[in-house]
Amino acid sequence: MGATVRIGVTVNGERRESEVEARTLLVYWLRDELGLTGTHVGCDTTNCGACTVHLNGEAVKSCTVLAAQADGAEVTTIEGLAPEGGLHPLQDAFWEKHGLQCGFCTPGMIMAAADLLQRNPSPSDEEIRHGLEGNLCRCTGYHNIVEAVKAAAGKEVSA
Amino acid sequence: MITAPFDYEAPETLDAAVRMLHENGEDAKLLAGGHSLLPLMKLRLAAPTLLVDMRLVPGLHHIQRENGSWRIGALTRHADVQDTPELGLPAVVASRIADQQVRNRGTIGGSLAHGDPASDLPGVLLAMEGDVSAQGPGGLRSIAAADLFEDYLTTSLAHDEVITEVRLPATDAWGHGFEKFTRRAEDWAMVGVCALVKRAADGSCEDVRVALTNMGSTPLRATATEEALRGGALDDDSIAAAAEQAAEGTNPPSDLNATPDYKRHLARVLTRRALIAAAQP
Amino acid sequence: MTSVGQSLKRKEDPRMITGRGQYTEDIQLPGMLHAVLIRSTHAHATITSIDTSGAKEHAGVVAVYTGEELAGDFAGPIPMVWAPPGVEINTPEHWPLKRGEVKHVGDPVAVVVATSRGAAFDAAEAVLVRYDAKPAVIDPEKALEDGSPLVWDSFGTNKTHEWAVAGGDFDAALAEAEVTVEARYVNHRVSGAPIEPRCSVAEARADKFTLWSTTQVPHIARFVLGGMLGIPEDKLRVVAPDVGGGFGAKLQVYAEEALVLALAKRLGRPVKWTETRSEHMTTSHHGRDQINHITLTAKRDGTVTGCRARVVADLGAYQQLLTPFIPELGFPVMGGCYAIPSIDLHFTGVFTNKMPTDAIRGAGRPEATYWIELTMDKLARELGMDPLEVRRKNFIRKDQFPFETALGIVYDSGDYHASLDRLLEHFDLDEFRSEQASLREQGIYRGVGFSTWVEVCGLAPSRAVGPQGVGLQAAFYESANVRVTPTGSAIVYSGVSPHGQGIDTSFAQIAGDILGIDPQNVEILHGDTDQGAWGWDTYGSRSLSVGGEALARAARKVQEKAKRICAALLEAAPEDIELEDGKYHVKGYPEKSMTMAEISGAAHIPPNELPADIEPGLEESSFYDPENFVFPFGAHACVVDIDAETGKVTVVRYVAVDDCGPAINPMLVDGQVHGGITHAIGQALYEQIHYDDAGQLVTSTFVDYALPTAAEIPKFETDRTETPSPTNSLGVKGIGEAGTIAATPAVASAVMDALQPLGVEWLDMPFTPLRVYEAIQAAQGGAS
Q1: Are B102 and A134 inside 8 Å of each other by CB?
Q2: Which of B1, B43, B266 is nearest residue C646 as measured by Cβ atoms?
Q3: Among C310, C437, C388, which residue's Cα sits nearest to residue C756?
Q4: What is the number of other CB atoms lying within 10 angstroms of the CB of residue C695?
Q5: Which residues in chain A are contacts of C671 at CB distance < 8 A?
Q6: Cβ separation of A49 and B35 shorter than 8 Å?
Q7: Residues B230-272: pLDDT tens digits?
Q8: Residue C125 and residue C51: Cα distance in Å, rounded?
Q9: SS3 of C9, please?
Q10: To the nearest whole angstrom, how far is the Cα of B271 from the nearest Cα of chain C?
Q11: What is the sign of the dihedral through the CA atoms of C428, C433, C434 and C436?
Q12: Which residue, among B186, B135, B145, has the nearest Cα to B15 in the 3D structure?
């Protein structure tokens, strides 16, 4: 057991405070402490992007951020992307376009896509493919993910 | 994976950060975006006993133009560099680092201090002949690009020195080209080339700089190519001839994806392509 | 309106897109402990000592065990289930933790259990294992040479087994051949690499055990693990929650699953183990890894007369569940979609000091398709014929189905000419060739490759693949239970265990149509051995054609009973009741009707009008074992561009026409095709499990094992023909592996086509920039 750190983070709009081991990665704090298990871990090397969440409004890989580094910040996870009971346009588009199969990469993929549309509200296919290069999917072949992001582009105003 | 345990401090001043590094010796490491250090720690290839997190230290996030130079705070993220197109080459290179999530966290100071010959920004610093400011217990000093990178993952920074700012002479009068050869978009460069070309009024090459990524234990300048081109014509044939010398003096390591010969070949091809782009009037 | 044939949005998705799925790693239990394994750093070594004393002193550590210390916890070793009649397969004892010797990098030797995963990792670093290294066997061909070091001294050879099958007279074909084409192909080792790593959680409550695991095979796992641990099947529940992709890598019963059960039993507390990505690359079974020597004989007019394959399969160090069988699994389609009168196949399995191979998406059929398709290309070149013309000439014709091959396999249905014709409607070959020529003038090397593929799937039938068939010690029927609730919704338990295929949706469509219930009100349950009957799980593209048919049969029994109830209440004969638009009505009297809710209400709270011979309740089961396999097929075209200066290959276009019979949900079919092709492009261009000469794994992370990202993959153009299978009542065939089986030869053929003007004759996968560059250099006769 290493040193501990006291942190306070606004997660999905709610202030959460904890005493965490300094080495606690943000992803494990979200999953194990807060029970927000929609954010997944798929690799050890910052490649797969399954752990993507928003930190102060931008996509980051939460397996490569210490929980302590998020102290004072705002974090949005897949569970908080849309108001309870509703769907973000990207969530809706992934459903509509069959942008997921096993669903494991999906939360990270959607969070990365949300950042992409924030940076570029009407991306080309090429820009979508490059914009999602930090997220691996083994099921879909990406085709329907690209279709979903295109379908959601332009509907962002409602988000 | 989970890192080995460590102590953690988040000082609020630069002086405090330097003091912590100084007092805790080699096993204390500076943490900026963490995208070079944390992956190594998760694989337990690095196990510092203290992390000094810079996140609360003010005054290190900026991109400013001043007297013909860009001053970029060490904690400026790749995403911020990417989103400042007037920087020219650095913005282009930053936009090709790993993926957007990484660019949203990784910092210019952290990347340079890590000294990885396969990472992208050291080549920019070399090509632009910039320098870094480093704060240590003895005060602030400036380290020229050519003096910063000493060996694989080794820089001339002392363990208790912190990069505070990167200074890049503006290259408004230069054209630039960047080639990064990867298997996949998000990969490290197998070989990368940054090229800057300053065209004279008569269309000849007034000056040229070429920096190579992942062609040795440090980022390198392709000096033979530069010398061959400087003062000469900028047509495709002259560029091609000069680029043939791009790998001279390099000793690239072999890896799964590339033999040393192949990397030298790539260096020549990519140098030609980067130079042709940089030489566009 | 029927829902079968409609692209219904998936019932699985609402939980998954909102982060409310439940994967194994999400499970936390009170008092749960965490296990971390200590693994061999040597490819081959004797364990001389293991010192766990330092690890035991670490904070949070509950226990540290070596293989010796847990030896008594296992009633039996990890089994292998193939016993082909008359063939001896060398099968070493394979225990969850190794004693004495380690046989590959990653072989587990000890386990740490601690109160947190971090503490377990910390303590694992303090376990000191000393090894005495032995020579490692890496190259499977060298392993077969006299004097090679041995992986297992006890067998006196590195050969695991030989297996052969033949039909027709190949020797005569060879003697009479006007043309003979020979080729050697290396189909390299790959990883399944689902994005969800493996994870297992075991719990013991008195004598009842529960295992939650990232498995494709919960039913098989219960059977196997019960035996390994001496737990009666009624006392062991295995649950596969949401599973984050399998691709064959989770068609296994792994050491870690047995270990967490043994640890939970010993320690009386729940135990979780989660794979790191490096562990996945090192110790989740690999796939492919074959060397194929192919001989094709033909007449000058292009008629193929014989096919011979000599296969050397690198099986790694142990026999896992199906390890030695996987190379042979594709044997029924090793003549491809061609009417070849003589086929002669011979397989040699080889031990090496590597992780065992086993099923990875396609499992044996991608290798077979690769060699037959690329050898057809070679034959065409040899004859100076168009490769598509050679194919057409040898296609089994539509009027020949059901077609019995030289091996006695009966292809159920097909129309290969129509499939290729449809492909060429989307892909104008003449236009391509002129574009190709003009691009070459600009220094861009563009190539096209075709794959006209057929595969065998829908495992089942038990009589063909079971103990008295090819010898798997298992059967492959499928089960389904359909029950209608008193308010008229339906709950189905199926014996298949999906992990991304969309079964919750497609099965609800099938059941909903048959029952007259909106598919939204049909809940499909699976992957929990305490919830339903024995099933044979999900692999080999079997879920729909076997499990879906079992479901349809069970649902029809329910429909039949519903009609009897309806008939009794409407005072009509059961045979006069028709189901239309969700209503059961008397033939000719649409107003005399009942909904399923009304019928089921009567079934559960029977009115007096119901005759005594109709039992209460509305629930039926079916067990279905097909008479034959199913044989999906199709035609694919791949276009690549090669940067001849750097050797980089880019897929620029991909067109796929597939036929899996009638599509239950076309959107899901397309999704399976997209993913399958991408998996194959991954193998052809990017992915390789690579061991160095010392047996160290070089590609142990996603940095080095290069799964393609969206930026490397093209958009896909897909179309379908629909040729029903006569094997099942739905007419369906599998589609989960089709893309992977079809696409590697298409990519390879495109690469060869592009490289042809540069003088490159042949190149093995993966077509990395380095390999392509070096091949071009060699062909141009110069060193770089």
Answers
A1: yes
A2: B266
A3: C437
A4: 22
A5: 98, 101, 139-141, 144
A6: no
A7: 999 999 999 999 999 999 999 999 988 999 999 999 999 999 9
A8: 11
A9: coil
A10: 12
A11: positive
A12: B135
Inter-chain residue contact A110 with C676, CB threshold 8 Å = no
C276/B contact by beta carbon, under 8 A: yes
The HSE-up count of residue B267 (CA atoms within 13 Å, CB side) is: 32
Distance CA C231, CA C658 (A): 45
Interface-testing mutation among B3, B193, B265, with chain C (most C C-beta atoms within 10 A): B265
**One-letter amino acid of C264:** A
Q: Residue type at B165?
A: E
| Axis-axis angle for helices A143-152, A106-119 (nearest 10) | 50
Whether C456 and C476 have beta carbons less than 8 Å apart is answered as no
Neighbour tally for A34: CB within 10 Å: 18
Q: What is the separation of C-alpha C657 from the centre of its chain, rounded to a whole number of angstroms?
A: 21
The closest of C112, C74, C672, C136 to C351, measured between CA atoms, is C136
Identify whether C766 is preceded by a cis peptide bond (ω within 30 of 0). Answer: yes
Nearest CA to A50 among C773, C262, C26? Answer: C26
Q: What is the pLDDT of residues B200-227, one digit of tens each?
A: 999 999 999 999 999 999 999 999 999 9
Are A125 and C715 inside 8 Å of each other by CB?
yes
Distance of CA C503 to the CA centre of its chain: 16
Answer yes or no: is pLDDT of C563 > 70: yes
Residues of A in contact with B46 (CB under 8 A): none
Peptide bond into B117 cis (omega under 30): no
**How close B267 comes to chain A (CA, Å)?**
24
Give the H or E element holding residue C121.
Answer: helix C117-124
2-31 in chain B: CB under 8 A from chain A: 2-8, 10, 31
Tell me if C708 and B4 make a contact (CB, 8 A cut-off): no
B79: nearest CA partner in chain A: A58
Residue C442: pLDDT band (50, 70, 90) is confident
The residue with tokens 């040393």 is B260
Cα torsion through C154, C159, C161, C166, rounded to 10: -160
Q: Find tokens 């050519």 and name the residue.
A: B146
- Asked if B77 and B32 touch (Cβ cutoff 8 Å), the reply is no
**Tokens found for residue C443:** 């220094």
- Which residues of chain C from 305 to 344 reach within 8 Å of chain A, CB to CB? none
Instruction: Identify whether the C-beta of residue C727 lies closer than 8 Å to the C-beta of residue C628.
Output: yes
d(CA C465, CA B262): 49
State the alpha helices, DSSP H only, in C637-756: 666-681, 738-755
CA distance C397 to C403: 9
Low-confidence ranges of chain A (pLDDT < 70): 1, 156-159
Cβ–Cβ under 8 Å, residues C739 and C674:
yes
* Nearest chain B residue to A60, by CA: B101
B243 in contact with C at a CB cutoff of 8 Å?
no
Cβ contact A104–C195 (<8 Å): yes
Residues of B in contact with C780 (CB under 8 A): none
Determine the residue type at B34: G
For the stretch C113-144, pLDDT in tens is: 999 999 999 999 999 999 999 999 999 999 99
The answer to whether residue C702 neighbours chain B at the CB level (below 8 Å) is no
pLDDT tens digits, residue range C462-502? Answer: 999 999 999 999 999 999 999 999 999 999 999 999 999 99
Residue A29 is classified by DSSP as I
Which ranges of B87-152 does DSSP label H, i.e. alpha helix? 89-94, 100-103, 108-114, 121-127, 145-148
**Are the beta carbons of C287 and C370 closer than 8 angstroms?**
no
The answer to whether the CB atoms of A134 and B184 lie below 8 A apart is no
> Cα–Cα distance between C370 and C183 in angstroms, integer?
12
What's the CA gap between C148 and C548, in Å, rounded? 49
